[in-house]
């Protein structure tokens, strides 16, 4: 992934806003390894209004079920529907093909307030 990423303490990554102002969200490599083989992903609907910190979906693996949290507040503009049939894509490519959804932030500054790669690396040591 060539874009600069931000991270959450819940092991999600967020891209910088694209030309339309939306950011893409996924789970980190650390998270997918901790979960193990992913067998089901529940994503928020396009148009859903999200509030930062709220549980808005789930990732189910052979080991456990883990909530997906909204990293920032905003409106869902796209979701990776391929994951309904092929949830294992998240394991194979968590930063590219395994992205979860896109959100248009209520405030773009919220993205900058997330963890940078250095801070996230310290969190996962």
From TrEMBL:
It holds the Pfam family GCV_H. Keywords: Lipoyl. Its cofactor is (R)-lipoate. Coiled coil: none annotated. Binds 1 lipoyl cofactor covalently. Belongs to the GcvH family. This is Glycine cleavage system H protein. It comes from Stackebrandtia nassauensis (strain DSM 44728 / CIP 108903 / NRRL B-16338 / NBRC 102104 / LLR-40K-21). The lineage of its organism: Bacteria, Bacillati, Actinomycetota, Actinomycetes, Glycomycetales.
């Amino acid at each position: 992934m060539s874009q600069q990423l931000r991270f959450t303490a819940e092991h999600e990554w967020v891209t910088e806003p694209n030309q339309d102002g939306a950011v893409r969200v996924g789970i980190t490599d650390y998270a997918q390894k901790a979960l193990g083989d992913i067998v089901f992903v529940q994503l928020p609907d396009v148009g859903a209004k999200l509030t930062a910190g709220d549980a808005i979906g789930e990732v189910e693996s052979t080991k456990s079920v883990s909530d997906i949290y909204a990293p920032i507040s905003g409106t869902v503009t796209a979701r990776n529907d391929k994951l309904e049939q092929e949830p294992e894509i998240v394991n194979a490519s968590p930063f590219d093909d395994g992205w979860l959804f896109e959100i248009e932030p209520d405030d773009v500054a919220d993205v900058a307030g997330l963890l940078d790669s250095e801070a996230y690396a310290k969190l996962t040591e």
